[in-house]
């Protein structure tokens, strides 16, 4: 039998394209839960899909920012397999719990998370049910996040340009006040030292407020109309 290699080539290209086109789980999925207008938790799934295989990170911030179940930046604490209309994932908690199991399902730009089995041999802070939305603004190839806390706030910083300490005009700030769970989202840029050009922090503005975050040592400073109204030391939440 004579083989038509031209047809095999086009079939291969089609299958490769179809597989890539259906990798709907890839991306950053974010959600938040509010009770009576007050945020009590936020949830992020950062997923890379390769065919039917998934890997990535889950990060769950709960109890008004007092519990942060997020891995280090290089740790993949989520793995899974795509089935016909959903995916089964296994995840580990940064609080010691291992091999939790959940099912996730994507519909358009929405994702539903449902916990199937709690992690064992340790604590965890993963949600039971959650709805997330795909964040199409996140530049997935090179961004890096860090979390720091002060006595009153939990802040998630995202450098969307590359490594966390690199210069960036696309910084994001997600802050949670521990007292009542209220949150704020800000966009800003990095701050560099005038002498050596090294990144020393980030600046964010909203109305007549300026939020300065200094990196080493971490500190949050809020200025209103030129007057400092908040100046708190913090600590990085690296595990």
Summarize the structure.
The chain is mainly beta. It has one helix at residues 5-21, and strands spanning 27-35, 38-50, 53-62, 67-69, 78-82, 87-91, 100-107, 110-117, 129-134, 144-149, 153-159, 171-177, 183-192, 199-206, 209-214, 219-224, 227-233, 235-236. The chain has 1 helix and 18 strands.
What would your notes on this structure say?
The protein folds into two domains: 27-134, Lipocalin, CATH 2.40.128; 144-236. It has one helix at 5-21; strands at residues 27-35, 38-50, 53-62, 67-69, 78-82, 87-91, 100-107, 110-117, 129-134, 144-149, 153-159, 171-177, 183-192, 199-206, 209-214, 219-224, 227-233, 235-236. The chain contains one helix and 18 strands. It has a nine-stranded antiparallel β-sheet, with no helix packed on it. An eight-stranded antiparallel β-barrel has the order 1-2-3-5-6-7-8-9. Helices cover 7% and strands 53% of the residues. A hairpin with an 8-residue loop joins strand 6 and strand 7 (100-107). The chain is mainly β and 239 residues long. The radius of gyration is 21 Å and the shape is globular. Residues 1-21 have low confidence and may be disordered.
């Amino acid at each position: 039998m004579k083989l038509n290699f031209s047809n095999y080539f086009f079939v291969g290209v089609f299958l490769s394209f179809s597989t890539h086109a259906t990798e709907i789980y890839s991306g950053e999925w974010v959600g938040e839960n509010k009770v009576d207008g007050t945020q009590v938790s936020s949830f992020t799934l950062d997923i890379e899909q390769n065919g039917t295989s998934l890997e990535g990170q889950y990060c769950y911030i709960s109890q008004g920012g007092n519990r942060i179940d997020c891995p280090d930046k290089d740790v993949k604490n989520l793995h899974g397999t795509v089935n016909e209309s959903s995916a089964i994932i296994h995840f580990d908690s940064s609080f010691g719990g291992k091999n939790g199991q959940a099912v996730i399902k994507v519909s358009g730009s929405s994702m539903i998370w449902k916990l199937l089995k709690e992690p064992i041999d340790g604590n965890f802070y993963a949600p039971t049910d959650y709805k997330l939305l795909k964040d199409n603004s996140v530049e997935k190839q090179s961004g890096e996040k860090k979390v720091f806390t002060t006595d009153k706030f939990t802040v998630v910083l995202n450098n969307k340009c590359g490594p966390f300490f690199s210069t960036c005009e696309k910084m994001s700030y997600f802050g949670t006040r521990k007292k009542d769970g209220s949150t704020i989202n800000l966009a800003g840029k990095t701050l560099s030292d005038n002498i050596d050009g090294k990144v020393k922090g980030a600046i964010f503005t909203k109305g007549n407020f300026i939020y300065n975050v200094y990196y080493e040592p971490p500190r949050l400073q809020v200025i209103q109309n030129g007057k400092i109204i908040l100046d708190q030391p913090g600590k990085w939440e690296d595990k």
